[in-house]
Amino acid sequence: MRKSLQVWLPALFVCLATVAASAQSFRVQCPTSTSLHPTAASSEPSYTGPTGVNGAIKCQQISGGDGYASMGDGSQTYLFAFGPLSGLADIANGNPNGGTQFGPTFNTPYDPATAPNGAVGLTPDSEAGGAFTGHVDPRPIMDVGVMNGNLPAPLMSIDEDDEFFLTLTNVGMIMRPDLFEQHTVHFHGYPNASAFYDGVPDASVAINIGGSFTYYYLAPDAGTYFWHCHITPPEHLQMGMVGQIYVRPRQNRVPVGTSLLSSLQLQQNDLRTKCGADILCSTPLPTSSAAASAAQTINPRTSQPYKYAYNDGDGSTAYDVEYPLQIHGFDPNFHFVGMTFNPEGFADIKDKYFLLNGRSYPDTVRTNQYVDTNAVGANTASPYVGQPTVSNAIYTQSADGVARPSQPLNAVINIPVGGKALLRLSDLDVSEYQTLASLGIPMHVIALNARLLRDLAGNDMTYYSNSITLGGGESLDVILDASDTTKYPVNSTFYLYTSNLDHLSNDAENFGGLMTEVHIGCTFDSATGKCN
Description:
Elements: H1 2-25, E1 57-70, E2 76-84, H2 88-92, E3 101-102, H3 103-106, H4 138-145, E4 153-159, E5 163-170, E6 186-188, E7 212-218, E8 223-228, H5 233-238, E9 242-248, H6 260-266, E10 298-299, E11 304-305, E12 307-308, E13 318-319, E14 321-330, H7 332-339, E15 353-356, E16 369-370, E17 390-391, E18 394-397, E19 403-407, E20 413-415, E21 420-427, E22 434-439, E23 443-448, E24 451-452, E25 463-465, E26 467-470, E27 474-481, E28 493-497, E29 505-506, E30 509-510, E31 515-520, E32 524-525, E33 530-531
Parallel strand pairs: 1-5, 4-9, 14-21, 20-31
Antiparallel strand pairs: 1-2, 1-3, 5-7, 6-8, 8-9, 10-11, 12-13, 14-15, 16-17, 18-19, 21-27, 22-26, 22-28, 23-24, 23-25, 23-27, 28-31, 29-30, 32-33
């Protein structure tokens, strides 16, 4: 009798969840226009001042449920997890920005052959003349969303002035049908306009199984943040419901030839970013004499306008390539207990896997895994049809039989010769402090907790270090400067690793953990924005 219950309970759960979904509790919203953005845009407009239309509408859809991740010693670890329901093809190809899409792309219903980055389940509303009103077909959402957990959770990347619509759909936990877990999205440290969208259930809403909710954000301040589920946070963070979000600065969109300082001064006319005497001001004007002559120019290594981490006004946060690096740790015993219907012992949490973007070394630098789409039993309707057969992802089979990337982002850092790499670091560990040391290339620490290190008088407070230490809930922006080609020649390799030697392991295995490689000499691909 007990064995039959184990077989039938998950099946019953899926049936019940599908019934609930068919009652149209699933929705997804991405408006084609708003008062701030009256027309749909497929690219980011230039920034010319606080008046007029700035930014664009961007949308993303995620599932809240469970899944598995492969650890560095080969074992699979059970997760409470978020998974992607938009941008599937981009994510499969290792694009960290893949889940976040411009409105027109998002509002093209997902089709593996013709619209592989569209929203899963989105369908025209026949009662509204075929318009997209948030009406969905729940079956593909359940097919893709169940056992779709990603580690880290799908990354979100937006630009200042964007309006961001994020839909969370709770598809339930197929391995724990006895749990009726709610889920939320909380942007940690993010300046939310309303507590209603903050994701803390005491002051906002929580999403039940079989339901969807669309969060709304206006992006006001550039910086590196992170997000997580705020339902029993110690448990859900330890189990994997954590991800990164970063906001790119307006300065990226300044037209070529325009003064960076004058563009930053224009932002003082915008009440959202005006400094004055506000100690939380994120855009103080620089005092450096170089600021007067700094202008937006073309980067010779990328053949594109320079990118910046913050609105600095003097070009001091310029970089060539950027890499989000999420630091995390797992206690395999806690995860096993979380899968096996036993009460968790929070006081006994002890991390044994130490992860960068969900991977331990050497998986952190694994860039190629061949996926044979012609193999016997291969699903030719997968979202990767027409995509390269070489991917930098670890794959786990989803509920519809399609293998999807469960840990899509490696942590290898590729820097062009003479270039700079921006590392967006966040620590989402529950029980440990984590240290990262850079062997050979000093780290230029430019921001802490999404704030540029500059005082209100404009004085530079950034510093150089060989190592940084983060506690859970902190973020740092660091630039690795390899512009000296005599010190950092082509084809040279350096290491980013933890100096906590007990964190350089994959559970009982040695030579793993919190470590990755820095390679000098990649070639920038303007079509993909990646350096290979």
